[in-house]
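Marked as duplicate of an earlier ticket. Keeping the data here for the record.
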Amino acid sequence: MTVRRLARAPDDGFDHPLVPGLRSSVDARRIAEEVAFAAARLDELRHDPPGLLGEIAVLDDREEAAWQCFLVAWLSPVEAEDPWEGIRAAHVPWSSGELPRVDGVALGERTACDPGRADATVTAYRAWAAKSGGQVAALAGEEAWDPPRRFDRAFERLSLPAFNRAARFEFLLLASGLGLVDAEAWNLHLRAEPMDPVVLACKRAFGIGDPALLAQRLRALADAGEAPVAAFDLGLLNWSRGGAQDRIRAGSRAEPDAGVRERLERAMGLEPAAAEGGDDQPPGAA
């Protein structure tokens, strides 16, 4: 496991009630930038999925598509010229019933795969799917559920051995973005793992440790900036790493959505930076 220190910009007197943990306008701009990238990635997933995700999107076999979404979330794309290398190497068809071959494959920054427990994870996943007659049916749950409830229930039910919060969340984002299930994230499920890097980043940005209050404050910022809550998962993670220079792209070709970035900046009392400026713009606060 790689331990990273949360990147922190110098205190420049910034203060805003939506992000009470921040004391730097540079940090606030970085949040806007990284959430804007993550929002663009979600839009890309729905309309022009890259690489392996594009191949998954056109599969006629929905069970195979769901299985490959699981592998992408579990193994994670690598930050390299071919992000999908390890996932393709590990893949075995869902219909084969075989276990994926993970020893020695390239794993991405957000992998949940523990090679020593890989068989237990996949065996539990297959058992989870079998209880509902398939992966897609297990994800969909009850017909009467609305998309946020469907996301929550699937997230809860995917509590499998060595399948962490980030992987569960990403799996559901992929499955919903590629049209396999009608589900929508309205919170980041911060209670699931107190030491998850996204949870720690939330605590730093919002200045409180209680998961319920964190969720409320995050939703308030998302609403004020008209940004999807789901974008704060990867967005806050990348912000905690320092921003664009160390960004996890997860196979995405997207660039930050300028509209999302500007709305978030204004919501936090900042004048929007120039389109090409990003983190290099002079700090400023209302």
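See parent ticket for discussion. DSSP finds twelve helices and no strands in the chain.
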